[in-house]
Design goal:
The chain is of the alpha+beta class and 342 residues long. It has helices at 30-36, 96-106, 111-115, 127-132, 174-183, 191-199; strands at 20-21, 53-56, 59-63, 80-84, 87-90, 117-121, 135-137, 143-147, 226-227, 231-232, 262-268, 291-294, 313-316, 325-326, 330-332. It is built from 6 helices and 15 strands. The structure holds copper (II) ion.
Length: 342
């Protein structure tokens, strides 16, 4: 199956097969890559209690954008009024520590574990693992298919999340995210809920904090600095993921709704469903081939995809996973969380 998706931001399992090409492009100097690695942030390795749920009142808000910087083809516009019921949403993306508790409690195996591989962004790979990679995605050759990569071995067999327990879990598919939410008595946010929460109470601003990417030169999120895809100078402090509570939260108390990791939403992705959808608690089309993701990731760069804007969207098939996609949980306002995470 060939899914017609905005594809630069994360790699799809649908691309595995004919779209994969046998070799990483040799123009990428391995020495540069190796130098980039020590820039990966160290973390306290703490528990990373990202599960705090924030109650939001809902009501009417302006969703989408007609911004000239936006991507009309992604269905970002037009701006329309959407009305939401009250709901709750997590202040942070689900951490490795939290996902570990889930996996240990249930024995759940993620799609990446079942397939035996996941897509890793090339700069994150240790030299030795990189040497074993035989497949990269043809059109987006920074995505390398790494055998053994999964949420607890994010760069393949020789890696671990032990020093990143407070980072967002990655290499989780939509299926894996939904399974976690079910276990926790929660659910994924709808795209409308996600965007309402990510805007943090601001009206039609480009980012969760306003219209200026770096107010007074200050980095507000974990995205790409440098030349994509081979030189990330990590001016914001991070080459890969950052701990979930890095950078200042938005007006509603949500961390990192721009950058760090893409976040799965409940909805099937459609470029135009919202043109004819109900404006009250919209849930996306009833079927589709790819699930919506929001927020952009540590790989987003203005020159390339500029999808860390709060109205930006992308999508991937529900079984796809990569090193820059995670999720945060939501709940109905009156629901009671289950399990040890409550
Ligand atoms: Cu992107």
């Amino acid at each position: 199956m060939k899914a017609n998706l905005p594809s630069c931001c994360s790699a799809s399992r649908a691309a595995a097969g004919d779209d994969l090409r046998p070799d990483p492009p040799d123009e990428w100097n391995r020495r540069d890559l190796a130098q980039a690695l020590p820039l990966k942030p160290e973390s306290g390795g703490g528990g990373g209690s990202g599960s705090g749920m924030i109650g939001l009142a809902g009501g009417a808000f302006l969703m989408g954008t007609d911004d000239r910087e936006g991507f009309p083809d992604d269905g970002e516009g037009p701006v329309r009024e959407v009305t939401l019921s009250p709901f709750r949403i997590a202040s942070c993306a689900v951490t490795n520590a939290e996902y570990k508790r889930f996996a240990e409690a249930t024995g759940y195996r993620t799609d990446a574990e079942k397939f035996g591989w996941s897509f890793v962004f090339h700069l994150l790979l240790p030299e030795e693992t990189a040497g074993r990679v035989r497949q990269v995605v043809q059109k987006t050759p920074w995505w390398w298919q790494v055998e053994g990569a999964c949420w607890h071995r994010p760069e393949g067999p020789d890696s671990t999340v032990a020093d990143r327990l407070d980072h967002p879990v990655v290499h989780v598919s939509w299926n894996d995210a939904a399974a976690y939410c079910r276990w926790a008595g929660k659910r994924l946010p709808t795209e409308a809920e996600w965007e309402y929460a990510a805007r943090g109470g601001l009206v039609q601003k480009k980012y969760p904090w306003g219209d200026v990417l770096k107010p007074e030169g200050k980095h507000m999120c974990n995205i790409w600095q440098g030349k994509f895809p081979d030189k990330n100078n990590a001016a914001d402090g991070y080459v890969g993921t950052a701990p979930v509570q890095s950078f200042a939260p938005n007006g509603y108390g949500l961390y990192q709704t721009s950058g760090n990791v893409w976040e799965w939403c409940a909805d099937w992705f459609s470029r135009d469903h919202h043109l004819r959808a109900d404006s009250r608690d919209p849930r996306g089309p009833s079927r589709g081939t790819a699930k919506a993701m929001r927020g952009g990731s540590f790989l987003c760069h203005r020159s390339y995809c500029n999808r860390y804007r709060v109205a930006a969207r992308t999508a991937n098939t529900p079984d796809s996973s990569s090193s820059n996609v995670g999720f945060r949980c939501a709940m109905d306002a009156d629901a009671v969380p289950a399990g040890p995470l409550s």
